[in-house]
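Checked the freezer inventory, then went back to the computational side. Two predictions to log before the end of the day. The first one is the construct we discussed on Monday; recording sequence and tokens without edits.
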Amino acid sequence: MLNTIFGIAIGVSLAYSVVALVAAARVGRLRGREPDGFAPPVTVLKPVKGLDPGQLGNFRSIFRQDYPDYQVLFGVADLEDPAVAAIRQVLAEHPEADARLVLCPALLGPNAKVSKLHRMAAEARHEILIVSDSDTRVEPDYLRRVAAPFADPEVGVVTALYRGGAPVGLAAHLERLCIHALFVPGALVACLLEGRLTFGLGATLAVRRKVLDDLGGFAAFTHVLAEDYLLANRAVAGGASVALADTVAECVLGRIPFREFFLHQLRWARTNRCCRPLGYLGAFVRHGIALSLILLLLAGPTPLALALLAATAALQAAVAWTVSAKVLRAPDPARGLWLLPIADLLGLSLWILAYAGNTVTWRGQRFRVTRGGKLVPLGGA
């Protein structure tokens, strides 16, 4: 009976991988089109805390934009933050830029990032706000491609996919693989099946100020963890549409301690379960390799079990490569693919652990994530 259950689950997983390949090929065909001449003034908001790998290069990339009019605001909670030196250096390198450092000491809720965004938004000069994470590096046409969908007046929010770059060490390579082989394919499949985009991705989240104000501003999201997902989701509920920009930000990974990698993945899993309980329940189908390995242990090395393992491994590798090469345009799409069985086993374990509790660790602080993604501080590091 157990073998039959796992066999059915693996069959569903194989079907999911085929859908993911279709979704990736569909998005990949739309990539690389030249943006039109629509280029409204925009303000880039960069909330910063602590040091990130390649931080100075990340900051410099936003000043190398082929864009006529944009403002850049960096937000820190404390001028003693170690990132302040890099911010001041990049500002000194570009004295002609409309850019400055904004001190954001007020903590409006447990989400310190959103508290910074609330403060920076008050200093923003333009009607389109683009939230860009501090650990991302972008291409010179990034702002043109993010702003382009706003030519449609129905678009209230624009988001963009991201890839992992410059991984060093096993944990960082696993982090990159989780993005390319699990997270992004899942987002593409959700978009394909729903027929529209209903969520945002935090590495890039652009919003019209009017849409943001109608939602209560950033202050309405200071008590949630997944502000990117919820802001876009509520915008859709309010009648706006969400567009996917034809650009990819690169999250520079560097070296990641394995504990940090694990806690980050667990935080994402539990937050996703709280925000999208039904969608997350079906997310086990992404882990066909892990399910096939379990069946192999239960049934032994039968021809069927070995065939299912080979099929799931081949399809998931094809999905990961297609997403990396065609959608995320990674320069090394095959990098780390040999780690796919390990990443998939970890992914299934984390899917199970997401149901074993609701506490997460974020930047050294423990929280409880409640229904809807609300954060409740528990105290202690």
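The second is the one RB wanted added to the comparison set:
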Amino acid sequence: MENALKLIEPGTEIATLETLETKQPNELLPYFQTNGLDALIDRIRQEAMAFKGDISTDKGRKGIASYAHQVAKAKTAIEKLGKASIADLKASVQAVDKERIRGVAAIQEIQDAVRKPLTDWEEKEKARVQAHNDALADIGRKIQQVLLSPIADMEAFIAEISSDTRDWQEFTERAKEAKANAITATNNAIEARKKHEAEQAELARLRQAEAERKQREHEEKIAAEAAEKARKEAEAEAAAEKSRIEAEQRKQELERQRIGREKQEAIDRAARAEREKEKAAKKAEADRIAAEAKAEREKQEAIQEERDRAAEQQRQEAEAAVKREADRVHQAKIHNDILAALIAVKITEIDARVIITAIAKGEIPHVRIAY
């Protein structure tokens, strides 16, 4: 390449750049007048355009870089010679400088053209590598979000990672490790979530069973008290009626003894008394049945009131549970937003979680989380 870069002097003499470097500054002036470098520039351009580099191999890429470097050496030589030619020619400084700049720019274009395939390849390679790194980082970002999501979202994330068909090229091992770690972490989170939900369901079942047991005991107590009350009232009425009847019988007996002579009249009064007795007995039985029915109604009303109270309590507890869950989900979202912001300012995830927990517990003065 160095032997090929020659400068044609006025006349028939042909000199290389190495030969020109031995000349005196005033001998170089003709080459740095207007268009004086055209012959050299054209020769370098023609040879550069004839050069064919192979961008597909490492050797070929190195060959392109080497050739571009040789062109740069010619550019540097012209720069040096141009400056030397005006050392003692102050009057020609402006024209020489202009031609020097034009020559350097022209050869810079040649250098850029020669190196363009390599430059394009390097930029494409840089973009390719960056895309793989971004994809790996995206897996890390997604795992942080999905671990706080519902189980269905976590399972969908595992399916997405498992079905990945991306050609990771030389990043394949790193991608395998990142996906395996993500799947393992997600599976662990799913198991932990299922265990927690099962524990909560069992706790709710036990609470429900206990509430139902207490309700049954309460209803049975109310029923027993009502039945006992009705029994006592019926016994009291029966005893009172019995006492009345016994008193009436004693009265009738005395009356029969007093009016023994009026046997028929006494018999009639006794028959009448007997009828009244039967009527009173029927009335007592009817009153007893009515009292029992009343007691049963009061019992059923008390049971219904207790059921209504229990239903209202369950409804209020359900509403409270829904509100607590909504508050938990809202707080989790706020914590995730803070976590992402802390990670974005280079705070590790572990430290970020410790900070969030401390703030939420009120352990850091003058700082609180607005939910």
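For RB: The chain has a mean pLDDT of 81. Strands lie at 6-8, 14-16. Let me know if you want it refolded.
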